[in-house]
Amino acid sequence: MLKTVVVIHYHELWLKGRNRRFFLGKFLLALRRVFADFPSARMRQPGDRVVLEFGLDAPLETIIVRLKGVLGIAYFAVARSVQRGSSDDLDALCQAAWEEVEPLEFSNFAVRAKRSDKSFLHRVDEIERRVGQYLLEKLRAAGRSVRVQLDDPEITCRIEITPGPMLVYAKRIPGTGGLPANTTGRMVCLLSGGFDSAVAAYKMMRRGAHVNFVHFWGGGARPGESSVHVARALVERLVPYQFTARLYLVPFEPVQREIVRSAPERYRLLLYRRMMLRIAERIARRNHAQAIIAGDSLGQVASQTLQNMVAVGAASPMPVFRPLAGDDKQEILALARRIGTFEVSEEPFHDCCPLFLPRSPALYASATDLEEAETGLNIIELTKKAVETSVLERYSYAGGRVERVEAAPAVVSTAENSVGQLNQQKD
Predict the structure, then answer these.
(1) What CATH architecture is 186-425?
(2) What parts of the chain have a pLDDT lower than 50?
(3) Which of 199, 104, 92 is nearest to 156 (CA)?
(4) Angle in degrees, CA 90, 94, 95, rounded to 5
(5) What SS3 state is found at 222?
(6) pTM greater than 0.85 (yes/no)
(7) Is 4-174 assigned to CATH 3.30.2130.30?
(8) DSSP string, 253-314
(9) What is the 3-state secondary structure (H, E, C) of 318-350?
């Protein structure tokens, strides 16, 4: 049995100039954490790619699945490893290339070589010509009607001459792309439990942001429908992209009842969202985050008209990123399926926002309208109490496993009551 060798090409790191070392360091750290449970794995960096070598018993399917979730990978390939050092290096490359392409269906092909080890005796053009001619003769001898096509071929047999073994591969597997995890700053996401907010968080993670989560939950849920279990499951699906995450669980019903008691009915939903932003901002500053993520899609629901989004956003001086603003629902659902959050968000749960929902919500509110509607609310006290009664859970991922630390008070001094309320909501 041969060792498994994977060639990884990264995405945008070559654009980073003087910062390239920082981004590459984060990328390599991510690979080490993803395969922390593979003690025999070895990593090399020949040129502008990464080569991972695994032991004889390494499960290939597991390796492929994990690599598809590593941010920053443009594509990767399972390669044939050819030992070098003999006078028959080109013959060995020809044989490995034939074994690689012979099972594939195609009508035209090309051979591309790259030599990161300049001590190799044969030039790149010589390697490509020799291997290409060998493959063409073998394919035609097998009765296959194929030709060489250098521009946009159906398949490309790639040969990489590294300081270690020579590598040959023809099947490239697309990666996630984007920037390596935890390279562009910290953000906090308003995690509802629905499809949109989880996808919004993922899109910012893919741009290198480290995302923590704030989930607002309400009372009155029937057993099995609590939104808390959905929020937890979503974080567990998302944390492998960035390896650590915090989830703040905020009891929101007391805030809603104050809004219902003191504010006009038509503005309730927008005032809920303004309070969520204020609470999330307070939590974000404690986490040294610089922005908030919301899953709003322009025009999708009544609270997400342009006027309402602007009016709600005015409640917080912290920037609010809305990465789904220009996406329609089908685009959002397609991405949710691809990243594995669709099945979680599809589960039934009790969302806090529909509680005391207005019969006719305002569609075109202004910031001034909402500020006037809030005059009967003690904004500072409501925000402070919500933060103090929140519960913090920590998540970490390494070696294929997600671990969650049990609920603990986000603010030790005053959160005991919230822990008790939360436990009543658990399944």
Answers:
(1) 3-Layer(aba) Sandwich (3.40)
(2) 1, 221, 223, 412-427
(3) 104
(4) 120
(5) coil
(6) yes
(7) yes
(8) HHHHHHHHHHS-GGGHHHHHHHHHHHHHHHHHHHTT--EEE----TTSSGGGSHHHHHHHHT
(9) CCEECCCCCCCHHHHHHHHHHHCCHHHHCCCCE
